[in-house]
Amino acid sequence: MITFKKPDEVEKMRRAGRVVAEVHNAMRQMIRPGVDTLSLDDEAERVLRKMSAGASFKGYRVHGIRTPFPSAICVSINEEVVHGVPSAERILRDGDIVSIDVGAIIDGYHGDAACTYPVGDISPERADLMSVTYKALCVGIEQAVVGRTIGDIGHAIEKWVLGNGCGIVREYSGHGIGRKLHEAPQVPNYGRPRSGMTLKPGMTFCIEPMVMSGREQVRSTGNGWTVVTCDGSDAAHFEHTLLLTEEGVEILTPWE
Ligand code: MG
Q: How far is the CA of 137 from the centre of ligand 1 (A)?
């Protein structure tokens, strides 16, 4: 069921979104060679607590994975696409790219956003992948207009990504968001123009292209959570939580 948010609900989602943005700003300050990914998770938890928010991902259960997600954030490095689990043994190295996904809940409403960051000096290939993926998010957001469709968003993203010689992760999608972290509708990163649901005011959803530099195939690793590219190519991930109104689209998770 699609939920259309009332003004008081939108205000709560704005607050949750600002917390998510604040966590991202803290991550950006911290990311450098030599930092372990558990320290990033600890800092994220600290910011969430300071802002009286909960961690949407911690304890999240998915059908088919035995253990709930153990951490506040997902930290996915290089060939890891999404759902990387923070660990004291996992150290960021110069030249890595690291995708951080953050979810926050405040007064019963969620915000969700992801961003891929460079660690030290990265290769031109990795910089290109990041730029293609970020722009994929932007072209998706451009289609987030009342009267257009979910298919318009997916089509714009797919066309942009494939046109730049990259691949799309098709197994995971953007999603509605509100009282639940994942609500209807699904917002795939591919599609046909004018297909799918028509966008209406009051909808809140996440657009989140996940893009790889190589072949379009992913698999889960031994912990059940971390998803990697099958060919070991790099992946990047950018996401915003959005509100649709008659006036236009509002980004609820305004990380820089
Ligand atoms: Mg999401």
A: 12
Structure tokens at 236: 């990047």
Residues near ion ligand 1 (CB < 5 Å) are 112, 206
Please confirm whether the linkage preceding 33 is cis (ω < 30° from 0): no
Within 10 angstroms of residue 70's Cβ, the number of other Cβ atoms is: 15
- Distance (Å) from CA 21 to ligand 1 centroid: 14
What is the Å distance from ligand 1's center to 112 Cα?
A: 5
- Residue 189 and residue 195 in contact, taking contact as beta carbons nearer than 8 Å: no
- DSSP 3-state of 237: strand
pLDDT tens track for 181-212: 999 999 999 999 999 999 999 999 999 999 99
CA–centroid distance, residue 174 to ligand 1 (Å): 6
What domains can be seen in the chain, in order of their start residue?
Answer: 7-251 (3.90.230.10)
- Tens-place pLDDT, residues 91-145: 999 999 999 999 999 999 999 999 999 999 999 999 999 999 999 999 999 999 9
Distance CA 29, CA 50 (A): 17
Amino acid at 28: R
Dihedral of alpha carbons 68, 96, 114, 131, sign: negative
Contact predicate 88/38, CB 8 Å = yes
Cα dist. 253→25, 44, 194, 202 in Å? 11, 15, 27, 16
